[in-house]
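2024-03-11 09:14:02 INFO queue: dequeued item Anhydro-N-acetylmuramic acid kinase, len=424
2024-03-11 09:14:02 INFO validating residues
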Amino acid sequence: MNKNCILKCIGLMSGTSVDAIDVAICDIKVIGDSKVATENQYEIKEIAFEKVTWSETVRNQIFQCFNTDVKPQSTTSVVQLISHINFMIGKEFANAVISVCKKHSIELDQIDIIGSHGQTLWHNIDNNGKVTDTLQLGDISVISNLTGCTVIGDFRTSDVSTGGQGAPFASIFDSLILLQKNYNQAIQNIGGIGNVTILPSTLQNDKMIKPLSFDTGPGNVLMDWMVCKLSDAKLDYDDKGNLARSGKVIDSILEEMMNSSYFNLTPPKSTGRELFSKEYAESFYEKSKLLGRSDIDILCTFTEFTALSIAQSYWDYSPVRPLHRVYIAGGGCKNDYLLERIQYHCRRLFGTDTIEVWGHDTLGFGSESKEGLLFALLAVLHIHSIDINMKDLTGNQSPHPTGIKLGKLSPGRNILHLLSKVNN
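2024-03-11 09:14:37 INFO prediction written
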């Protein structure tokens, strides 16, 4: 392994909100020679980040698959629809790469490797909280052939196939890149679903306290659904949380939502639209309407639910006390009111007014680019044949003491040059 090798990478991600395709371009250098992923062994320099809008046709087809109560057109079977979307998502991802590279005057043959998460269509969890299967679409062969670049993808199935939750993967980035000496941190991502990595300060190392990661519950998914409904589909999200700020919480509804069985599961655990679904939102919407409450009050309640479920999960499961800082990444970082409520509940639960909630960009990485950078990093770990120990992150049960390798490869026209660059 050439430990001084710098790879120019692209990370691709689309979350459960399906709001856009994240494209992060970066240089990544492996500065150690360990064959097991280890903290402080990787340098990441972010070059560019863009959010590329989905074509409305493909986005609608993705949501058609999400809505299990909606049947495809009579002339199209479910299998046909999924097969078609798999290729169309791959094309959308490839076109996003091409357009962002062009915008930033980067030639495609300068890109060494692409890491693509794809679009999660289904993440199946049984009644005991075990993930039995997961499906991300966006064929990596389509991406590699349209861009000419080597692509690594299908990361989550590697973890699920060996007993892991397949999520949250942001914890890999957090535990390798973001450890701090003096602070216990919660690194919270708020996309459609929320996930957190609790990072003990490095001063806790003598106590052998390891990072803990899990999905906290809903992120933007319920709030976005409610905003779309109250605006007759004119709005996609609550800008800065200003709409929710003007409402009042429906206490009885909030209490019932917080009684969801998911919150009683112990980490590692994961969830998705399969639980916090359109049907879930509709049921609490109808209950709220029976109480005579306004749409704005319902949005306020959904926002409070997201904030409280995040803070409560820290209190219930954080392996360290006190918690010093919370850093927010993902689209939710733009919701000022949501962040205020997270900070309020953290301070209330932990009994201190010193917990600060900040944007992820204060750590040196963009609040929205993190997941793209994560999948670029995973592609680099794959091509360097570096194992990742996922046991403490996702509950992975692999018998191999060094962990597992994540992802599969679709070679681009640059594959021989890439392998030579990595191995020399």
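2024-03-11 09:14:37 INFO annotate: The chain has a mean pLDDT of 92.
2024-03-11 09:14:38 INFO item closed
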